[in-house]
Amino acid sequence: MAITDILSAKDIESALSSCQADDSFNYKSFFSTVGLSSKTPDQIKKVFGILDQDKSGFIEEEELQLFLKNFSSSARVLTSAETKAFLAAGDADGDGKIGVEEFQSLVKA
User: Which SMART domains does the record associate with it (predicted)?
Assistant: First the structure.
C-alpha cells in the first residue's frame, strides 16, 4: 500500500513544502495539512504501518527521523531536535518509541 492510497498527493506536497527548512517541522500542522487528522482510526493505522519501516509494531527514533521521506523520497530528514520533540510528544508510556495507539492519539491531538 502506498501512502497516496490514503492521502492526496496535493495535500502531501503542501504539507512537505511547509516544513522544508530545518527545525520548521510541526507535527500538528503537518498532520492537519496532509489530511491525516480527518482520517478514520483504520486509515491512521494503515499510515502507521507504512511509517513502521521494520514492522516492529512501533515507530522508533530512527524511523521518526526519516518520517518525511515516507511521504516523498526527496523530502529532508528531521533534525535531531525535531525528532526528539516528535518522539516526546507521541511516546505516552515513556518506552522510547511510538505504538499504534499512541500514534492515533498524536494524530488526533
Answer: EFh
Picking from 72, 73, 1, 7, the residue whose alpha carbon sits closest to that of residue 36 is: 7
Q: Looking at the whole model, is its pTM more than 0.85?
A: yes
Task: Give Cβ neighbours of residue 21 (< 8 Å, ≥ 6 apart).
Answer: none
CATH number of 3-108: 1.10.238.10
Q: How confident is the model at residue 43 (pLDDT cuts 50, 70, 90)?
A: very high
Contacts with 68 (C-beta within 8 Å, 6 or more apart), sequence order: 16, 19, 25, 75, 76, 77, 78
| Among candidate residues 14, 36, 25, 32, the one with its CA nearest the CA of residue 64 | 25
Residues comprising the binding site? 52, 54, 56, 58, 63, 91, 93, 95, 97, 102
Interhelix angle for 27-34 vs 100-108, to 10°? 80
- Spatial separation of the C-alpha atoms in residues 109 and 105, rounded to whole Å: 6
Mean pLDDT, range 103-107, rounded to an integer: 96
